[in-house]
């Protein structure tokens, strides 16, 4: 829908590599609206909740370690606009960079599944869950209308 929102996060490897601006630019230039933004070192509990559905996988422990070790923050964002959940996933590309199409974010900036630089919600339901998890505090998300909105959303 036109007002749907998704949770996008640049992971610590993406932050270390200076890719935050490029990620933001892609979503801005596509026509989406930034409604929340912050850098945090997540607690182990937050990362485990975020990846709860992967808790049985062999890479889970390493994944949580890499997200939480504080060698760089996670840069968390909420983007809003038409079909942004599905479009966000398409812009990010496949989980394994070997399968991410060239031109997608992962297809352009990374080569390892364990260092794939960015997260994006995979469904409307996960978006809602993840936005609440990472931006749960009141006032962290801003309702505003870009002056260009009517020229982008139809
Ligand atoms: P996505 O991030 O595309 O939603 P996912 O939810 O299946 O993918 O997995 C979450 C993250 O876990 C993924 O971005 C990187 C890591 N991961 C997934 N599969 C992995 C694997 N086989 N080895 C190492 N890390 C993996
Ligand atoms: Mg996922």
From TrEMBL:
ATP binds at residues 11, 59, 89, 95, 106, 116. Keywords: Kinase, Transferase. The keyword Ribosomal protein does not apply. The keyword Kinase applies. It comes from the Eukaryota. It is an enzyme of class 2 (transferase). Its EC number is 2.7.4.6. Belongs to the NDK family. This is Nucleoside diphosphate kinase. It comes from Bifiguratus adelaidae. The lineage of its organism: Eukaryota, Fungi, Fungi incertae sedis, Mucoromycota, Mucoromycotina. The chain holds residues 81 to 234 of 236 of the full protein.
């Amino acid at each position: 829908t036109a007002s749907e929102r998704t949770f996008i996060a640049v992971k610590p490897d993406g932050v270390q590599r200076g890719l935050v601006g490029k990620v933001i630019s892609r979503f801005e230039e596509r026509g989406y609206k930034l409604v929340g933004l912050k850098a945090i070192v997540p607690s182990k509990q937050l990362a485990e909740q975020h990846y709860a559905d992967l808790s049985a996988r062999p890479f889970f422990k390493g994944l949580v370690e890499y997200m939480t070790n504080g060698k760089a923050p996670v840069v968390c964002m909420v983007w809003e606009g038409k079909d942004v959940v599905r479009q966000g996933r398409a812009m990010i590309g496949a989980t394994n960079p070997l399968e991410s199409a060239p031109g997608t974010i992962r297809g352009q900036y990374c080569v390892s599944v364990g260092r794939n630089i960015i997260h994006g919600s995979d469904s409307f339901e996960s978006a809602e869950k993840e936005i609440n998890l990472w931006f749960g505090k009141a006032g962290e998300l801003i309702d505003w209308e870009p002056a260009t909105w009517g020229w982008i959303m139809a």
